[in-house]
Specification:
The chain has 281 residues and is an alpha/beta fold. 32% of the residues lie in helices and 18% in strands. One of its GO terms (molecular function) is hydrolase activity.
Length: 281
C-alpha cells in the first residue's frame, strides 16, 4: 500500500468508524461447527445461519481477515427461501448484535433473504476498520452468495446504509450483473462530509468517493435520505441522485434524520415498491 493510501486509511479509521466497544454480542460454536450469536438484540432463530468468512487480500492493501456474517432466509413455509437477496452493509456505530433483528424484520417485511456482516474490526470480526478492508469484506459476502449459495447476481440487491454506502457503491460500480442498489442516508464523499465547503477533492485522496462510483452503476438505484439529517446532509444524496447512471425515484423524508429514517411510514412502502419495480424489469 502506498504512503498516501495508508494515510487516507488512517484518517478514515479515526473519523469514519465507531464500532461498539465492547461488541454487543458473543459468538459460540457447537461441536458440529455451527455458530450462534447471543447478547445484544439477537434472536434465537434456527433459520438464521451465522458464519465466518475469509476476506481475500487485495492489491494495495486490505483483506486477509475473518469476518462474521449472518444469513437470514425468508420463511416461505416450504423451506425454499425467496428468490431475491439483500446484501446489507450497516452504519458505522452498530454491529450484528444490534442488526440481526433488523435483518429479520427486513426479510419478513419485504419477502427477501438477507445477508448482513460486520466489517473488519467490528463485532467479532478480526482486523481493524479501513476503507480497503470494507471493500474486501463486502466482496467476501458477494462471493459467498454467488459462489457458495449459487445466487444469480441479478437477484442480489446491494443495500448500503450511511458509511455502508461506501463499500456498496464500490462493489456496485464493478460487478457486471446486479439486481439493484439501495443507498440509505449515503455520503457522496467522505471528505465532503468532513469538509462541506470543499468544492473538489482528488478521488485518490478521498474517503469513499461515491460520487464517482455511482456514475458507473448500471443497476436500478434507490436513494433514501431524511431532510433533517445533521450527520450526512441531504445534499449528499441529491448529488448522488443527479449523478447516478440508473437512479429511480428517490425518497426524501421530511423531518427525519440520520437515525430514524427507517421509522418513517414511507420507508417500508418505498422499499416494497422498489422491489416490485426491479422484479418487473
Amino acid at each position: 500500500m502506498g504512503l498516501w493510501a495508508a494515510l487516507i486509511d488512517r484518517v478514515a479509521g479515526m473519523l469514519a468508524y465507531f464500532p461498539p466497544k465492547p461488541p454487543t454480542y458473543t459468538i459460540t460454536s457447537s461441536e458440529g461447527g455451527k455458530y450462534t450469536l447471543s447478547g445484544g438484540f439477537t434472536r434465537d432463530l434456527s433459520r438464521c445461519k451465522v458464519m465466518k468468512l475469509d476476506t481475500e487480500r487485495r492489491r494495495g492493501g486490505g483483506g486477509g481477515e475473518k469476518i462474521v456474517a449472518i444469513y437470514v432466509p425468508y420463511d416461505t413455509g416450504n423451506g425454499v427461501g425467496a428468490k431475491k437477496t439483500l446484501l446489507h452493509s450497516h452504519g458505522n456505530a452498530v454491529d450484528l448484535g444490534i442488526m440481526q433483528s433488523v435483518y429479520v424484520h427486513l426479510s419478513e417485511t419485504l419477502g427477501v433473504n438477507v445477508l448482513g456482516y460486520d466489517y473488519s474490526g467490528y463485532g467479532r470480526s478480526t482486523g481493524s476498520p479501513s476503507i480497503r478492508n470494507t471493500f474486501a469484506d463486502i466482496r467476501a459476502c458477494w462471493s459467498y452468495l454467488v459462489d457458495d449459495r449459487k445466487v444469480n447476481p441479478k437477484d442480489i440487491i446491494l443495500y448500503g446504509q450511511s458509511v455502508g454506502s461506501g463499500p456498496t457503491c464500490e462493489l456496485a460500480s464493478k460487478v457486471e450483473e446486479l439486481g439493484g442498489v439501495i443507498l440509505h442516508s449515503p455520503l457522496a464523499s467522505g471528505m465532503r462530509v468532513l469538509k462541506p465547503t470543499i468544492e473538489k477533492w482528488p478521488v485518490w485522496l478521498d474517503i469513499y468517493p461515491n460520487l464517482e462510483f455511482v456514475q458507473k452503476i448500471k443497476a436500478p438505484t434507490l436513494i433514501m435520505h431524511g431532510t433533517a439529517d445533521e450527520v450526512i446532509h441531504i445534499s449528499n444524496a441529491t448529488l448522488l441522485h443527479s449523478l447516478c447512471g440508473n437512479s429511480v425515484s428517490p425518497l426524501w423524508v421530511e423531518g427525519y434524520d440520520h437515525q430514524n429514517l427507517d421509522f418513517s411510514p414511507q420507508y417500508v412502502e418505498r422499499l416494497g415498491h422498489f422491489m416490485q419495480e426491479i422484479s418487473m424489469s
